[in-house]
């Protein structure tokens, strides 16, 4: 049998060499940002890590040092079995962590506001608006101001703010371009927002960072940061496509539940308001902040609503009394339904903000 200590001395240099070679091949997109938001998040991540290491590293060193110094075989170590308190140690142990927690709290507060994904970026350049819809299992991107749409590809000019409006036509997902920063969820019947910018020209991988089913691993896309001239050429290329993204084409995309990566697809034109339609079609009758507005208007017949009794026979009379003079009950019902639908739409817009 090979002794463990000589074996360990022999394996240790080899393991260190293998680990070094492995780490040299690693490339973290988060630590290689290509946009201002990504740079700010990288700085915050490194700063927070260093501050926490100010406690972790000394504790590890002291643990090893004390274990070695006060080992059983060290007869020269001072033995004090009745020792129980040291003011100097208490001051160090409590003051340094409290200062670190205070600094982290300030950083968290400031970064929570400055890196808010809903906060528009300050720029003299007009932003590019992109509406992103997560499907099973691909990303659909609509450029409402350019009247085009793409699948699994976006292109935008460098140094230009990107205003993303994001939703899902299926299960909850997550939109993430690591080198540009900030991940945010896409949810059915809801709208989330994200503001990014690319400060360098290049191709940046985008992904779904939230498991969403069988084709999840193939749900990725490419974000192209190009010059203004190249962006205009790309727009002309997409507009040259004869296909149109309308409700029928959208239904075909939804039906194609690809388990493999869906190829890049261009739509030369896009039906107006399709993004809002996708959100609204999942809301059904619950269009007022997720509540059934009709059921809450007057209460069910014969039930008490907020302490007011309303017999079953008085419900129709109440509706008739609320109707304008000369209007029929049917007109009043239609008018009420229109008001509820409008209220639901307004409520959705408010929740999106």
3D architecture notes:
This protein is α+β, with helices and mostly antiparallel strands and 353 residues long. It has 9 helices and 13 strands. The protein has helices at residues 4-24, 36-69, 87-114, 228-239, 247-255, 274-280, 293-297, 314-322, 329-352, and strands spanning 128-135, 138-143, 148-151, 153-157, 162-168, 173-176, 184-186, 192-196, 202-208, 220-226, 244-245, 265-267, 269-270. The strands form 3 sheets. The protein has a 6-stranded mixed β-sheet. A 5-stranded mixed β-sheet has the order 4-10-9-6-7. A hairpin with a 4-residue loop joins strand 2 and strand 3 (148-151). Helix 2 (36-69) runs antiparallel to helix 3 (87-114). The radius of gyration is 30 Å and the shape is elongated. The N and C termini lie far apart (70 Å).
State the low-pLDDT regions, or none. Answer: 288-330, 332-353
Largest sheet: 6 strands, mixed
Structural class per helix/strand content?
Answer: alpha+beta
Mean pLDDT: 81
């Amino acid at each position: 049998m090979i002794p463990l200590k000589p074996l360990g001395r022999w394996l240790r240099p080899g393991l260190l060499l293998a680990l070094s070679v492995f780490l040299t091949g690693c490339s973290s997109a988060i630590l290689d940002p290509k946009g201002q938001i990504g740079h700010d998040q990288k700085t915050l991540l490194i700063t927070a890590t260093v501050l926490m290491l100010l406690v972790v590293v000394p504790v590890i060193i002291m643990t090893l040092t004390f274990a070695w110094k006060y080992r059983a075989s060290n007869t020269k170590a001072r033995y004090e079995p009745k020792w129980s308190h040291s003011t100097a140690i208490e001051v160090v142990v409590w003051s340094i962590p409290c200062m670190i927690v205070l600094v982290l709290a300030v950083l968290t507060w400031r970064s929570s506001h400055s890196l808010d994904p809903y906060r528009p970026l300050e720029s003299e350049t007009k932003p590019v608006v992109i509406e992103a819809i997560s499907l099973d299992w691909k990303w659909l991107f609509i450029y409402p101001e350019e009247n085009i749409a793409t699948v699994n590809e976006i292109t935008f000019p460098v140094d230009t703010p990107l205003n993303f409006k994001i939703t899902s036509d299926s299960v909850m997902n997550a939109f993430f371009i690591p080198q540009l920063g900030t991940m945010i969820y896409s949810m059915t019947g809801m709208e989330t927002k994200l503001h990014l910018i690319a400060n360098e020209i290049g191709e940046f991988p985008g992904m779904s960072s939230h498991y969403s089913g069988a084709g999840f691993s193939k749900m990725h896309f490419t974000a192209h940061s190009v010059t203004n001239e190249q962006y205009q050429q790309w727009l002309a290329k997409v507009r040259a496509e004869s296909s149109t993204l309308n409700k029928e084409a959208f239904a075909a995309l939804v039906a194609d539940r690809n388990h493999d990566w869906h190829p890049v697809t261009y739509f030369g034109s896009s039906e107006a308001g399709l993004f809002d339609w996708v959100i609204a079609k999942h809301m059904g009758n619950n269009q007022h902040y997720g509540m059934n507005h009709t059921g809450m208007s007057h209460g069910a017949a014969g039930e008490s609503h907020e302490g007011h009794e309303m017999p079953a026979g008085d419900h129709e009379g109440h509706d008739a009394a609320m109707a304008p003079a000369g209007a029929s009950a049917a007109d009043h019902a239609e008018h009420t339904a229109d008001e509820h639908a409008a209220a639901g739409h307004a409520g959705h817009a408010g929740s999106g903000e």
